[in-house]
Every structure is written in C-alpha cells, then in structure tokens.
C-alpha cells in the first residue's frame, strides 16, 4: 500500500519537473529573437514542441507557468523582457494567446485522440486563435496609446509575416516531439 502512494507522489513530481522544463524551453526559445514590432522568436516552436511532447494538460500548465513567470518580473519574454507591462502592451495578447492555444490543443486532442493529424489540426486551430486574440489585443492597446489602426495594417505587421515561419515551426516541433517522446518516456 505504501508503494502505491510513493508511485503517485513520484508521478506528480515527474509531471512538475516536465512542466518546469517545458516553461524553461519556452523561455530559452523566446530569447532567440529577431526584433521587429512583434519579435520573430523560436517561442512558438517551443510552445508547439511542449504541447506535442507533454500533452495538452501538462503543456498548457507549462505555458501558464511561463506567462506567470514573465508577469512577476522574471525575464522570460523576448529580448529578456518581463513584467505585467509587457503583457498589457501591444504584443501582450500574443503571449497570453499561447494559453488559449494550449487549451484548444488540450480540448481537441482530448476529444479526438493523439493522432498526428489531430495534433496538427489542433495546433493550426490554436495558432488561428492565438493570431485572432493577439491581433484584437494589439488593435485595442495600440489605439489607446497612438491612434486607431486598421485590421489589414495589423495583420500585415503582426500575422502575415509569421504564418509561414510558424507553420514550419509547427512541422518541425511535431516531428521532433514524435521522435523524442519515446526516448523521454513521457506518457
């Protein structure tokens, strides 16, 4: 009977370790960036990889941990930035949108199973949700600080340049996760 309690305790510890490593991976990949209005980073790759490797629940929690670390001042965001001001700024909606991406991934994979086409579909839907949320956020915050800007302009600044790179990152992340998951023995 004691062994059952120990196994459950270790499993929870393992989950916490995986989620922490997921948040660290997202952090490291966010630091790899090319500065623009919305920085080009490897952050999206890490989010895809973490979701595919850890699954929806643990992956989403890792994303939430990452966002919360940044909110309290740990420099986890692009260009080693942090703080609630970043989250409330123009591009904060794209960071917060990662949480919604994780939730949609978790929901879709939970309903349809972890088949490769389901994962890819869930991530594509997640990225559309991320883009939508982030773009709406950008437009609202930008209009308060500057002047109103049109949807076409914001899409040209914040979405269109990222579509192809994000799809490439998605494909690489899923392929790498499929390859590494058996070796990592993540269930």
Give the SSE layout.
Blueprint: H1 2-31, E1 33-34, E2 40-41, H2 43-54, H3 56-71, H4 84-88, H5 92-112, H6 116-145, H7 151-158, H8 160-184
Antiparallel strand pairs: 1-2
Helix pairs in contact: 1-2, 1-3, 2-3, 2-8, 3-5, 5-6, 6-7, 6-8
Structure characterization notes:
By secondary structure, the chain is mainly α. It has a single domain, classed as Orthogonal Bundle (Arp2/3 complex 21 kDa subunit ARPC3). A two-stranded antiparallel sheet has the order 1-2. β1 and β2 form a beta hairpin. The protein starts with a helix and ends with a helix. The mean pLDDT is 91.
The major sheet is characterized as: 2 strands, antiparallel
Strand order of the largest sheet: 1-2
Oligomer: single chain
Give the mean pLDDT: 91
> Per CATH, what is the topology?
Arp2/3 complex 21 kDa subunit ARPC3
Rg estimate, integer Å: 17 Å
Beta-strand portion reads: under 5%
- Treating each run of at least 4 consecutive H or I residues as one helix, how many helices? 8
CATH architecture: Orthogonal Bundle
Q: What class would the helix/strand composition place it in? A: mainly alpha
User: What's the number of extended β-strand segments?
Assistant: 2
Helix content: over 70%
Summarize the structure.
The chain is mostly helical and 187 residues long.
Can you give keywords for this protein?
187 residues; mainly alpha; globular
């Amino acid at each position: 009977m004691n062994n059952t309690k120990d196994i459950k305790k270790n499993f929870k510890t393992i989950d916490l370790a995986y989620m922490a490593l997921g948040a660290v991976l997202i952090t490291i990949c966010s630091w790899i960036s090319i500065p623009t209005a919305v920085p080009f980073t490897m952050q999206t790759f890490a989010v895809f990889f973490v979701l595919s490797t850890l699954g929806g629940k643990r992956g989403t929690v890792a994303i939430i941990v990452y966002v919360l670390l940044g909110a309290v001042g740990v420099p986890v965001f692009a260009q080693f930035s942090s703080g609630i001001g970043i989250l409330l700024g123009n591009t904060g909606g794209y960071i917060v949108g990662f949480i919604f991406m994780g939730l949609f991934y978790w929901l879709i994979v939970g309903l349809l199973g972890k088949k490769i086409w389901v994962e890819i579909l869930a991530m594509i839907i997640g990225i559309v949700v991320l883009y939508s949320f982030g773009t709406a956020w950008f437009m609202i915050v930008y209009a308060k600080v500057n002047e109103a800007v049109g949807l076409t302009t914001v899409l040209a600044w914040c979405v269109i340049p990222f579509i192809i790179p994000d799809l490439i990152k998605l494909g690489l992340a899923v392929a790498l996760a499929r390859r590494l998951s058996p070796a990592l023995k993540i269930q």
